[in-house]
Write a structure and sequence with these properties.
Length: about 400
Amino acid sequence: MPAFSANRPAVSQSWEACQNAVVDLVIIGGGIAGLTTAREAARAGMQVTVVDPTPTHGASYAAAGMIAPLTEYHIGDARLVPLLVEAARVWPDYARRIAGESGLPSGYVDHGTVVVGHDADDKAELLRHLPAQRELGFDPEVLTTREVRDREPALGPTISVGIAAPADHAVHNREFLAALMRANELAGVRFVHESAQVSARPHVVECESQELRADHIVVAAGVDTVHQGALEAAVRAAIRPVKGQILRLQADRRTSTVPTLTVRALVRGKSVYIVPRPSGEVVVGATVEERQFDVGATAAGVFELLRDARAIMPSVDEWAFTESWAGMRPTTHDHLPIVGASSRTDVHYATGHGRNGILLGPLTGLSMAQYLTTGTMPAPMAAASPLRFLGEAA
């Protein structure tokens, strides 16, 4: 049963001493799942080390930062809904606490979301989802095209339908990650800026220049989990990398119409989102490509995103192009994340979050810390147990 010793040295001890000791917890991966788990475990009294060559700079850094249980729900994902709803519920307080601890802005904004369709077919598809959404407890509000443009004046005239999702919010993920990193440092979490593998030997993590020993190991490595050869083959096989391309633009509010709400759209059957930042930055995303580990941005991907964005928001043409990024989402076959126990008593997972990594990040950290310190996984995260892939009861 997961547990840690109350007699471990204080987390404020020197890094040199940590190198020669068995710590309570080593986490492989410094994205949002790894860092929230580290912060919560450290605050619970565990001695924690995070191993990542560039913490905060993986897929979590590139994401748009949507906290959107309604607009991230897709028909067939009903088992995921309780996780999405609970994850969204904990975000406001979690963001406040991270900002308070770090002294840095959390990046969280509660400006709501509108969903729009471009043509008649897009309208029909969006309206088709409403009964299932309402049956699951969501409350989408159908708007006329005039009403949706009144709420978001940056939208163009060729909109077939609008749906309000006022409880779907967003976070400036890069600001949040900077604050979360600072909160980890203040909590005494140690960082090793190297790549790492779980060893076949119990309680050992093999880094590039050293070995780390820990009572518990958490794999929060995203798509790189599939390269951890000492882990169960069934769990690694359950994760597939889904490529996503995303753009960042910079708008000048003095000369251009800039959105104030997150806009999610269906344009000729393809999804696109536009997420504004207070600074005038606008994030446009994201493609969905089954391309394995091909992470290069492509001209076709950039073209498709800009084409679909400008179909619903013509002022896109006026914004400066500042960044394109392509990376891999760790997606599971059943769309649930992989969080909790492995078949090894020393190894646990916090990965497989797919398109919901930012949304599920704080809930993952809170759940993993409870599991590591008490041996119980809180509902609804229990549904994400890795044991479902191993033919065991979760």
